[in-house]
Amino acid sequence: MKHTKVKDLLNSTTTLQEINAKGWVRTFRNNQFIALNDGSTINNIQCVVDFENTPDETLKRITTGAAVSVTGTLVESQGAGQKYEIQVKQLEILGDSDAEKFPMQPKKHSLEFLRENAHLRVRTNAFGAIMRVRSVLAHAVHTYFQEKGFVYVNTPIITGSDAEGAGEMFKVTALPFDNTPRTEEGKVDYKKDFFGKETNLTVSGQLEGETFAMALGQIYTFGPTFRAENSNTSRHLAEFWMIEPEVAFNDLEDNMDLAEDFIQFVIKYVMDKCPEDLKFLEGRLLEEEKSKPQAERSEMALLEKLNFVLENNFKRVSYTEAIDILRNSTPNKKKKFQYIINEWGADLQSEHERYLVEKHFKCPVILFDYPANIKAFYMRLNDNTEPGKETVRAMDILFPGIGEIVGGSQREERFDVLVEKMKALGIDEEELWWYLDTRRFGSAVHSGFGLGFERLVLFVTGMTNIRDVIPFPRTPGSAEF
């Protein structure tokens, strides 16, 4: 008999049918009641075993983590808390689980312990819920762009260009480390390497994405990106997924509209598709926050926070205005900020971004028109800015609890200005000859943004550490699993 998913059994409209279910034992009580879960839903289905007619040897093997197959009748449940249960007629142990050694026992585990067991943590309610939400969010991303006629582009993972100009990249090489070929100057001879040049894992698909937008009109990428940034924080990963739309003929205003509409769409989508998982995660967050001092607790419950983003327009504020607000803020005056804001031109930190969102405006914020010298070379220089205070058409979207969730800009479409900016920053024109070609041949105003997918999942699930929203986190000193 073909097995039926637990989710479908719990949503069934007919009972007294012969069914088969397969899954993993969450708990086994009184030698009679199995709580069975197969990953299709956060809810378990109760399977009632006829223990008097089941061999003791089989009952002993029904342990937490064991994989089982049950065949029986779906009936209305006698107990509270569930609509249906399975009266088991036949039970087969598919895979034993040693109760003494299985780490995921039915008790509360610390998130740190679960990270050390990332290969098994998805068997807990919390991580099952997080990963289902992540999956639905990924589907929502594709749904949004596909319905709007965007073309999905797979940009290269191995690249010779540093899109951000930050230099924090993982090198890709096939050269031997014990006998590396050298040039006459003693430098590594990359001409003898696999690609004949120095290559890295990509930090962004944006530059390649721009070339496709200048032919296909509107494109998006959604793939893995890598940063060799030695940041051991709750907001950084060395390997993460990025969503990067790029749209020809869009200016900064259009770009902000697109980002806001996109974020609201995907949040609404996951709220519609994952109500039970989100309700569970909300309860988990409330429980976790009970141990925190009142001042550190969230002002809103998870679902309230998600609805808040859906129901409120994002506040649009210039960088210059934001700096004035921060400079005159109480935490700045009382030196409570770790990084004190003294003057225009400062690079905003997470504490500043969160202050603007959580304390000052109390809604998502889009900051725009940043100082040119703290932003990337490809961002469009604003006209009529005073010398020394040049700004670019950049925008960042800031969210409560997260800080920056989106970074984007109108791109510099003027060939001469782009070349000047590259020269000033020491970026090799020959290295990016193909990128400059898009400004030589049919250049036009265009814009795009990047959204770190894990930060979006972090916000939607209410988790506080980015390592808990990706299956196997890659961080400094950790490439386990």
From TrEMBL:
The keyword Cytoplasm applies. One of its GO terms (biological process) is asparaginyl-tRNA aminoacylation. It holds the Pfam family tRNA-synt_2. GO terms for cellular component: cytoplasm. It catalyses: tRNA(Asn) + L-asparagine + ATP = L-asparaginyl-tRNA(Asn) + AMP + diphosphate + H(+). It is found in: Cytoplasm. Its main location: cytoplasm. One of its GO terms (molecular function) is asparagine-tRNA ligase activity. Belongs to the class-II aminoacyl-tRNA synthetase family. Homodimer. This is Asparagine--tRNA ligase. It comes from Flavobacterium succinicans.
